[in-house]
Design a protein that fits this description.
193 residues; alpha+beta; Umud Fragment, subunit A; 7-stranded antiparallel β-sheet; two-stranded antiparallel ribbon; 32% helix
Length: 193
């Protein structure tokens, strides 16, 4: 059906107007988009929680002490490390005043308080001075492996109630998206004579 006006001519395509070759192309495009979206969702899920399976801990950057390399809202990924493997310049996450901090090692020494252990002097990249107290190896949670700038904002949203509902809805839509072609374009049964 074509509506002829001075500016627009629309043609409404019915499913019966699509031939076999066009149908194959449409299904292929639909399946490709579905697969890409599912891969993206799986990667996001792995980056938010799945890395814990291999001993990596994701943490959100809450302050600007390590800017510009690790801006507020970034997601950092740390893994346990042998204290003897740490060196100056490594970025570590450690217990500090009943919370966690992530700063760079600027110096290392033998501990005087706990013999046989190492202590690390740390400093935030954006801070003008070193941290006021040395970090004992027993307080180290891990060494930074990699980070994703601003991904912490997304992870925080998805882990909150409204974001969790949105994530579940997106998952349901993706499942529907995968099976929709078979519902819309059912395979024609071959007639046997």
């Amino acid at each position: 059906m074509c509506y002829n006006t001075h500016t627009v001519c629309l043609k409404i395509v019915q499913m019966s107007d699509i031939n076999g070759a066009q149908m194959k192309i449409l299904k292929y495009a639909w399946n490709t988009v579905s697969i890409i979206l599912i891969i993206i969702v799986v990667i996001l899920a792995i980056l938010i929680a799945g890395v814990k399976v291999v001993g990596i801990t994701p943490l959100k950057v809450l302050t600007g002490s390590m800017e510009p390399e690790y801006p507020v809202g970034s997601m950092i990924y740390i893994k346990s490390v042998d204290p003897d493997d740490l060196k100056k310049g490594d970025t570590i996450t450690f217990k500090f005043n009943q919370s966690l901090a992530t700063h760079r090692i600027v110096d290392i020494r033998q501990s005087e308080e706990i013999p046989g252990t190492l202590e690390y002097q740390t400093k935030g990249d954006a801070n003008k001075t070193v941290d006021g107290q040395w970090v004992n190896e027993t307080d180290i949670e891990g060494r930074l492996l990699f980070s994703i700038p601003y991904f912490g904002f997304f992870a925080n949203y998805v882990q909150s109630p409204p974001g969790c509902y949105v994530a579940i809805a997106v998952g349901a839509v993706l499942v529907l998206f995968v099976f929709l072609p078979d519902i819309i374009f059912p395979k024609k049964k071959k007639e046997t004579t």
